[in-house]
Amino acid sequence: MFRLRVDDHVMIAHSLAGEFFGPAQNLHGATLAITATFERQGLDEHGVVMDIGVATQLLSEVLEPLRYQNLDEHPDFAEKISTTEVICQHIALQLASALPEGHGLQALEVAAEEHPRARGMVRIELSPA
Amino acid sequence: MFRLRVDDHVMIAHSLAGEFFGPAQNLHGATLAITATFERQGLDEHGVVMDIGVATQLLSEVLEPLRYQNLDEHPDFAEKISTTEVICQHIALQLASALPEGHGLQALEVAAEEHPRARGMVRIELSPA
Amino acid sequence: MFRLRVDDHVMIAHSLAGEFFGPAQNLHGATLAITATFERQGLDEHGVVMDIGVATQLLSEVLEPLRYQNLDEHPDFAEKISTTEVICQHIALQLASALPEGHGLQALEVAAEEHPRARGMVRIELSPA
Amino acid sequence: MFRLRVDDHVMIAHSLAGEFFGPAQNLHGATLAITATFERQGLDEHGVVMDIGVATQLLSEVLEPLRYQNLDEHPDFAEKISTTEVICQHIALQLASALPEGHGLQALEVAAEEHPRARGMVRIELSPA
Amino acid sequence: MFRLRVDDHVMIAHSLAGEFFGPAQNLHGATLAITATFERQGLDEHGVVMDIGVATQLLSEVLEPLRYQNLDEHPDFAEKISTTEVICQHIALQLASALPEGHGLQALEVAAEEHPRARGMVRIELSPA
Amino acid sequence: MFRLRVDDHVMIAHSLAGEFFGPAQNLHGATLAITATFERQGLDEHGVVMDIGVATQLLSEVLEPLRYQNLDEHPDFAEKISTTEVICQHIALQLASALPEGHGLQALEVAAEEHPRARGMVRIELSPA
């Protein structure tokens, strides 16, 4: 089993509603250092999981609508609490939809370091196309 | 599947008995940079694996009895060799016991970087409570 | 010459007014990974630049009023643009004021990594007290 | 389940033939920061996955023939495209062959960070010897 | 005194002629993780050392002619040994020439991590324009 | 001005006598991740500050007598408190003595990260030999 991981980041504002979240109920913000990991059983005909340039471009495009945004007013998080885990899931689902035909991948992982001591992550299984 | 990872560290002295361990038979020490990873199939009603503050607090409490200790004289390692792997297992079991009722987690991972070029890790499966 | 460096972080929202700042004019946010460096010509009677616990506590107290805040509405940034450099300067001046009598330090540096590829820093000289 | 991870690196030149690889078709090079992860169901009689010194030595020996080489002219990559993933697989297979009798391991992972924003990885299952 | 640091990287092949360089006489390669640090006595009218976007763009443009190149055949290193220090100096001088009029900077630093355990650096003083 | 930085680490036990040090009065330990930085006005005839291999070897030799030691019983720290700053100074002075004739260096810096959130450092000026 093979993996390719690429990195990017976004800087967003948000607040987390509900007593559960303590001081994070305030409008504050985060730099989310994002890693996207693409997993494939075997390598493709070029000897890679996926072209690094394509993977980097794909992640960048998915992150584009989030850059410099206030997620409290962002349509994609209208009915949601924008926790790190929920943001990871959103990015992973967007990445999955954006994969090219015949990608051959079997799983995707998206992780977000929200500060130097905490990181959220999601893994989703794919039906190899 | 979702994960949350939080970080902390402890500074301990110990020696590893047995020729197998070469110079580490001497009384020496280590900073163990610890990461605890909590894993859950789906997110809870707050859209998280676990509250980051709770996870950080839990890890800190479990590490408390080890901080600034000589493990050669520590009761929890009385009959054990305190290798990095054994320390990870000890921390993971302590974390598992300290989890709140109804945590919904399915696995725990504890890793310890003992120096910039070596890291041990343990994973334990949990019966979701 | 000796230095001691300790780390902490804050998560803030803000916007940067003026065309100069492009998309950062939007309300967004940042995790600022902060390092404070204390500099001393020689060591004190305990063989240190400063007690690490004291340094860590001092930095934490200075950061406290910024944690989970929207700097656009924060009194300390009322007449200022809260760029990374300006935030560093604010923290450094607060740290300098909070130093204990007879600290013996000759300089302070505060750096903030605002995302994995950019970091601001300020250095201020102190009159050793 | 337990893991031990050790690190090393190699500095190689290579080119990647085929339009697919864009500018990487040029003869260029890379520092590959390598991590090898050894996995074992339980710990051995010394309370470890594997001796750290042995693991580090094993990885170093496997990397030796690649250090300061041009992979375009290296016999081990004669019929292959030396992508990061293919190099990881090569190292993992070499490590697997070099494992001592009775190692008790169940899997090996080799990862290579080729630049600060991209990393390849392979995992191979082992028949515990 | 204020600083701004931005990061990028290049992947190059080269060889270092002369017995002094031992195995690095072979044609091999490196990923050079580059940081450029811009230094200014006070902040400009926008409260920054320099716009981060401009700094990042400037560094990227200076690195462009080096990306995926074999420095043994690169005109800029025709009469030179392309050691890490020499490459840093080359990048710093190129950056200095590319600075906009009225930059107000007093120094530039360029560092290159050539592998996880070694880094070269150059500092050049500027005549504030 | 040019710099070269190389890295290594040591794992030691020690205790810090005196109420000032709080819980660090206990016998405990630390992994000290060490960086040694060599500074030179201009480059030498090979276009380097110093050969990386020589610098790495020099640092390793200076650290050798400290590896896996209890500094409370180490002759080099007999009359001293082995704080991070004092250990840095010890290593820097040993490095300075071990420099080859005609090294041309003007300063040395030794830093030690004692845990992920604290680092000590010393800088000593050299009389270029």
UniProtKB/TrEMBL annotation, chains A, B, C, D, E, F:
GO terms for molecular function: 6-carboxytetrahydropterin synthase activity; metal ion binding. Pathway: Purine metabolism; 7-cyano-7-deazaguanine biosynthesis. The keyword Protein biosynthesis does not apply. It holds the Pfam family PTPS. Its EC number is 4.1.2.50. It catalyses: 7,8-dihydroneopterin 3'-triphosphate + H2O = 6-carboxy-5,6,7,8-tetrahydropterin + triphosphate + acetaldehyde + 2 H(+). It comes from the Bacteria. It is an enzyme of class 4 (lyase). The keyword Lyase applies. Keywords: Lyase, Metal-binding, Zinc. Its cofactor is Zn(2+). Belongs to the PTPS family. QueD subfamily. This is 6-carboxy-5,6,7,8-tetrahydropterin synthase. It comes from Nesterenkonia sedimenti.
